[in-house]
Design a protein that fits this description.
This protein is of the alpha+beta class. The chain has a single domain, classed as Immunoglobulin-like (Sandwich). It is elongated and about 70 Å long. It contains 1 helix and 10 strands, in the order αββββββββββ. One of its GO terms (biological process) is rejection of self pollen.
Length: 129
């Protein structure tokens, strides 16, 4: 391989790496998946919204999941999680905290757990209320 081709290949590889890194560091969510591992006694009722308004509520059976999409990933999203005798609130999307395209949340009795697809692992948080 000529020195010119070797340099071009290296530059293309570097450019690809920069583009991929920039995308992953600035990833904006457009899909959320809520997994119900909180309650076996009743479906988990989820109501979310942002400063533009509320999204349609949905129910998730125990061990099941429910995806939903949003149009504007620049706004933070708060959700209420309800099951038998329990109501909790949590901000499932904070554009300063979360870096994901598909944000997976495992809902457990102690609080929501974020499945970090970029860095790997799980980050659990306490309920806001």
């Amino acid at each position: 391989m000529s020195p010119f081709n070797k340099n071009v290949s290296t530059l293309l590889l570097l450019a690809f790496f920069i583009i991929v890194t920039n995308f992953s560091m600035n990833a904006k969510a457009d899909e959320f998946v809520v997994h119900n591992n909180a309650t076996r006694t009743s479906p988990l009722n989820v109501t979310c919204g942002n400063s533009d308004g509320d999204f349609p509520s949905f129910y998730v059976d125990y061990g099941d999941k429910h995806p939903f999409e949003i149009e504007d990933a620049s706004l933070n999203i708060n959700c209420f999680f309800r099951w038998t005798g329990v109501i909790h609130k949590f901000q499932i999307y904070d554009n300063g905290r979360d870096q994901c395209v598909t944000c997976n949340w495992n809902i457990i009795p102690d609080g929501p757990c974020f499945q970090d697809e970029l860095r790997g692992g799980e980050q659990c948080y306490p309920w806001y209320s």
